[in-house]
Amino acid sequence: MAEAFRAEWGRVVAYLIRVTGDWDLAEECAQDAFAKALERWPHDGVPTSPAAWLRTTARNRAIDSMRRAATGRAKLREAAILRFPDDPDDADDRGIPDDRLRLIFTCCHPALPVEAQVALTLRTLVGLSTTEIARAFLVPTETMAKRLVRAKHKIRDAAIPYRVPPAHQLPERTGAVLAVLYALFNEGYSATSGAALVREGLCAEAIRLGRLLVELMPDEPEALGLLSLMVSHEARRPARLDAAGDLVILENQDRALWDAAAIAEAARILETAIRLERPGPYQVMAAIATCHGSASTATATDWHEIAVLYERLSEMIPSPVVTLNRAVAVAMAEGPAAGLSLVEEIERSGELSDYYLLPATRADLLRRLGRGTQAVAAYRRALELAQTDAERRYLTKRLEQTALIR
Questions:
Q1: Average pLDDT, whole number, for the chain?
Q2: Higher pLDDT, 170 or 36
Q3: What three-state secondary structure class fits 157?
């Protein structure tokens, strides 16, 4: 059931938004369809086509709801004869055969703030809870809930069309669309909460949509850069967890499990982007991923080059998260004391105070410097903030090991 939700939620909601034009109704009917599946499938068995079952159930629920809400003969007749296509992936006049891509571009209309664009897409396309999205943005749940409501009202009140825009309007939405796909992939690659660290369906969906976007915009280097980045990370995913589902850090991963063909494909995509001579942050991140993917062993990793690339990235998109990643690279290239200095700068700024990777990174650097007592305290703080079971198990193991040798 969980797999069906991950695979089909966005498809069902995007379809219903297209045919009803009502975002809240679409989510409500999709939720109702999944609730019925949860109730019936354990007894009746999973249908031959779960996607078709979910779509039909949600569609019928939408029709019933619209009929109940209709007042007057004209509205009743309109609701009764409303056309709900059986194929949710009818191509539009631009030949884009995917409601989900239409949904992304609609959510990413320039009339909406960028953060609202990304958040709304994660809510409607992926089905993330408001709390999960709030964690991803490092803001309170109530703040995120208000943003989502305002974004939906803006789309309704401004009558923003549900479509992939014409070519001349694509550039103004490119940045937000790329941010959405990156956020979608990140939620799959490292979930914000829950028992599972990795949600493979979300990673696959982000890459699939990324390929569609590159097909739509073949000369957009940042679209190519993002696709390269996602493919490169996905190539290493099989080694991130062990047989027990526990996190395996990069230096300890079995590189024989990495998908060499995918790593090579990611490198080729990045080369295509670089030849367009319009550098951007996704290309830099893809270059960092390529450095990792091309290293045959952990010790062969070019950490100096990675540190330089993170410095370049921080110039493009100043961010405490980028600075934290740079601190790790600097620690590997120049020693843990140099990395710890950067981490302490972030701590003094007060940024990332609720981000578990900040104390986790500090703990690791303190451990490597032989400052066990301080490392234990930092690991405990990281444990308080970690949201997934796999992360908590990893930190608990590190904490226990450090406590024994301090």
A1: 85
A2: 36
A3: helix
Q: How far is CA 27 from the centre of its chain?
A: 19
State the CATH class of domain 2-80. mainly alpha
- Tokens standing for residue 222: 């940042």
- In which residue ranges of the chain is CATH 1.25.40.10 found? 323-406
Report how far apart the first and last C-alpha atoms of the chain are (Å, whole number). Answer: 46
Of the ranges 81-95, 103-117, 266-280, which one carries the lowest mean pLDDT score?
Answer: 81-95
Nearest to 349 by CA among 338, 358, 361, 360: 358
Integer Cα distance of 328 and 326 in angstroms: 5
Specify the CATH number of the domain 323-406. 1.25.40.10
Q: What are the residues facing 240 on neighbouring strands? A: none
113 closest CA partner among 121, 103, 125:
121
CB neighbourhood size of 251 (10 A): 10
Residue ranges, CATH 1.10.1740, the chain: 2-80
Q: What is the rounded distance in angstroms from the CA atom of residue 283 to the CA atom of residue 264?
A: 16
Which 3 state secondary structure label does DSSP give 241?
Answer: strand
Kindly report, residue by residue over 224-269, the tens digit of the pLDDT: 999 999 999 999 999 988 888 888 989 999 999 999 999 999 999 9
> 0.85 cut: is pTM over it?
no
Cα separation, 152 vs 143, in Å, equals 15
The DSSP letter of residue 280 is -
Q: Could you tell me which residues come within 8 angstroms of residue 323 by beta carbon, excluding any fewer than 6 positions away?
A: 314, 342, 345, 346
For residues 128 and 187, the answer to whether their CB atoms sit within 8 Å is: yes
> What is the rounded CA–CA span in Å between residue 230 and residue 255?
18
Residues comprising the chain, all counted:
406
Contact between 188 and 203 (Cβ < 8 Å): yes
* Spatial distance between the Cα atoms of 229 and 207, rounded to a whole number of angstroms: 10
Write out the two tokens for 235: 């190539």
DSSP string computed for 284-332? HHHHHHHHHHH-SSGGG--HHHHHHHHHHHHHHS--HHHHHHHHHHHHH
Per residue in 395-405, pLDDT tens? 999 999 888 76
